[in-house]
Specification:
Layout (H helix, E strand, L loop, with lengths): L5 E3 H8 L3 H9 L6 E3 L2 E5 H24 L16
Antiparallel strand pairs: 1-3, 2-3
Helix pairs in contact: 1-2
Length: 84
Amino acid sequence: MAQEDILTIGRVAELLHLHVMTVYRLAREGRLPGFKVGSRWRFRRDVLESWMADRAQAALLEAESRRLGLTGGESLVKGGAHGR
């Protein structure tokens, strides 16, 4: 794994267009995939890219579910009507 494959909080904030403190909060809450080295957060580029792709896909499915008027058990996001 190359050095550029491990990202700092600052680099993740740049990539996601978020404030550094937002990245800290999301990582601390377990909502952003990262790990600590001592007291500093680090993020694997490949894991973060996969996380972003998953989030984008979920957002698209949620928007399509709303467009189709699906709710709850019918949602495309959770494997409902068309999400199987």
